[in-house]
Amino acid sequence: MNNGFGDGTIEPDLSHAVTASELGRSSKYGPPVFLDLTEALTHLVSEANAGNDIRINSFEEIYICDPSKPRYGFTSWDNFFTRHFRKGVRPLASPDDNSVIVHACESTPRRIHLNVQESDKFWTKGTPYSLTDMLGHDSLSSRFRSGTVYQAYLSALSYHRWHAPVSGRAVRATLIQGFYFSEPPYDGFNPELGPNGEEKLTWDNAYQTAMATRALIFIEADRSDIGLMTALFVGMTEVSTCEIAAKEGERVRKGDEIGSFHCGGSTYCLIFQEGVGFLGLPDQAKAKHICPVRGFLARVNSTGEVQ
C-alpha cells in the first residue's frame, strides 16, 4: 500500500485534513502533533538550521512554497513531505573538486564501519552489516568486500530528497522490496542500547539496511581513487516508497538530485571499496547536529587510509 505514496494513488487532499488543534498535542505511539501552524513551522525551521553556519529565519525562505495560498500551496501530505529547498539554501561543497565527497541526504551521522564483510550474520549481536544482504545479493556485492560503510539517519522533519555524493556514471539503479517494522532479535542487554552500548536507534538503523525496502544506486566515480561506490537509501519502518530518479547508464553530477523518500524518516549508507581512503569523515560519536545535504562529507585520501 505505501508504495502508492508519490504516484498519486494514496495522496489525500489536504483541504479535508484534520487540523493539528483537533488532534491534540501528542500521541503515546506517534510523533508530536503541533498545536498550531506557527509552532510547526518553528520546529521545521529549527531542524533546517541545525548544524548550519548561516541561520535562515522563515520556512518560506528555506523551502519552495507560497504562504499566500492555503497550506502554503502544498496539495497533499506527500507534496509537503517531498518539498524542495530554495536555490542557494544548500550550496554544493567544492563543486570543481571531485576529491570532495558530499552528504547525499540531510542527515545525522550514525556509524562508520571499516572492513565490512561480504556476508555476515547481520541479525546477531555485534555484526551490523552484511554486504550481500544489504545489496540484495547483487552481483556487484563482492566488489565491496572489506570496504567502508558510512551510515546516517534522516529526521522526519527534514528534507527527504537524495543527491549524488560524487560525480560519475550510474552503473545500476534498482529497488529492493523489504519488510515493515522488522526488528532484530535483541537478547541479553539493555533494550535501549545496542550490544556495544551504542544507542538502540543506531543498531536498528544498521539492521534495517538488510531488511527494509531500499534503493541501490551504483556509481562509477570519475575519480579512479574512488572507483565504483554505492548509495543505499533505506525506507525504515513504514517508509516503503523509495523513488529513484537516476537512470542507469546516465551521468550524474555531484550534488544532483537522484531520488527521494516518501512518507517518513529514513536512513542511508554510502559504501566504498577496500583501499578507498578518506580525510575529514565526521566523528559519529560526537555528531549532535544534522549535516546539510550537498555539504562536505569527506575528502579522498590518496594514501588509502581513513582519518
- The secondary-structure class comes to alpha+beta
Report the helical percentage.
10-25%
Secondary structure tally: strands: 13
Give a short account of the largest sheet: 7 strands, antiparallel
How would you state the average pLDDT, rounded? 81
Using only C-alpha atoms, the radius of gyration works out to 19 Å
Task: Write the element-wise H/E pattern from the N-terminal end onward.
Answer: HHHHEEHEEEHEEEEEEEE
The coarse overall form would be globular
Number of distinct helices? 6
Low-confidence stretches: 12-31
**If strands are numbered along the chain, what order do they take across the biggest sheet?**
2-3-11-7-6-5-9
Provide the β-strand percentage band. Answer: 15-25%
**Amino-to-carboxy terminus distance:** 43 Å
What does this structure look like?
It is built from six helices and 13 strands. It is of the alpha+beta class and 307 residues long. It is 14% helix and 23% strand. A hairpin with a 6-residue loop joins strand 6 and strand 7.
In brief, what are we looking at here?
A hairpin with a 6-residue loop joins strand 6 and strand 7 (228-235). It is globular and about 50 Å long. It is of the alpha+beta class and 307 residues long.
